[in-house]
Fold this protein.
Amino acid sequence: MSKQVVYNPQVCLQMMKGINQVADAAKRTLGNTGPAVMIQHQTDGITPVFTRDGVTVANAVIVKDRIENLGARMMRDVAGTVSRQVGDGTTTAIVLAQKMAAESLKLITAGFDPLQLRKGMEIALTIVEKHLQEQALKEVNRDWIEKITYIATKGEPEVGRLLADALEILGVDGTLNFQLGNSRDDILKIIDGLHYEQGYLSEYFVTDKTRLEAILDRPYILFYDQEINDLMDLIPILEDVKAEGRSLLIVAEDVVDKALSGLLLNHVRGIFKVVAVKPPGFGDKRVNRLKDLALLTGGEAILEATAGQLSRLSLDQLGQAERVVVSAESTTIIGGKGDEKTVKSLIKVLQNEITLIQNRKPGSGSITGNQHDAEELEDRISVLTGKTGVFEVGGITDVEIKERLVRIENAYMSSKAALEEGVFAGGGIGLMRARNVLEKVIAENSEQQQGVKIMEIALAAPFEQLACNAKLNAEKIDVTLMLDKNPRACFDMQTQQYGDFLEIGIIDPIKVARLALRSATSVVSTLMTAETVIMEVPDLSIMAGYSPEWAAATREDPRID
């Protein structure tokens, strides 16, 4: 297959067209005053998507020209990286990247060395990040959380109260699962104890006929990664459990045939109090999930067991809990007897693994695969924390619910980011004020100094775009803020009110802004150093003269001998 080679300046000019197409579509959604974008579904007849989420808009823009689409792809990578790390800030990252790319292209066209410009931008990024972390207010309280979520959800105060409740109960390490609700109202459910979606293997295990639940008090718990086919293998451990006056929860790959019938018969007759369920997870993920359950309850996961091993089990190998509640669809283990320090250590390891996945460079591994791995680790953490939250997003229509779900999930991620690194003035004003620290920077040469200048110009872009979306004069607002002696002075674009950013509620998490800035700088600095693009030219000659009608007419009839 032949290759097409495209050189600068044509490369940068064409890529910039793709960047502008994505950015111009996405940046209109920035801020509470930003409108929604309607995206046609790929399948005819299905309702279009309405969204105010930058990464959703960016992913929907596919440019026909292949070089222009490389620029569009960079914008999608900018938004996608920030979305995976902190959920919110995707549109801010796109706006920053577009401004950096435009200013870089001007200077490169004028003859500046792209490598020196890149170095200057990286110097500026390091200085701005350090400044933002030093300026952060870290004593984040509930009121600030509600104000942050109010902004992130585009003005829904009730959502802020529910998300603040979730963070108070689950903490930063906990995971809140979001799903489509069945009513107009949003519903927050917090489930105490270890909870996962697998119910009892038979309704005959039910002990509470009213609620259709099987309840075990102070049970022992057996963890087994294979099928149980013979009841006789379980008789020794069942007798040991009964001698202790306790019950038994069996978490196994399956209990089949006569083994299940024998358990049910003994359970119904009151000889042994026992319930059987499957473990969480699927496929090769189940082994890790079994180990997690065993760790939480102070037991041992019996893996790759040899013949007859079940009959030789001792009580020391079983986990323990205060209570177990099993419904037709879920299992909740309350008061596991595992070692708390060991559990926290494992949670820390899993969090570090998530960070490594999120910090992978664009193109390193499958995006879907990376996201799936991170979500699997987050699910394990949610189980290990001992509390699970479910946020059912309400609304009148499916279109409304789906649009709100994205905004609410992003708001929750923003709140967690605020708790991790603190907050500063929102509305693009905190980033714009960071320009002051760059005015004193003296780089090694004039070209690096221009790289610093690119960053200085870009820092004002989110504020200017917010003012544009609100149809306000950005320069007038900027001058008024500079004349205000209060270092925390801010402006609410929606109410057109000046005041302390904490009091008027225009608050942004430092982590969101910092990662948006870092992601934009990384992608644009890569773009500006690209001198040549080499692409394969598709050979369409094999399709010459082809038509579906011709193919159908010449296909042999398989019924003819």
About this structure: The longest strand covers residues 220-228. Residues 557-561 have pLDDT under 50 and may be disordered. Residues 398-421 form the longest helix (24 residues).
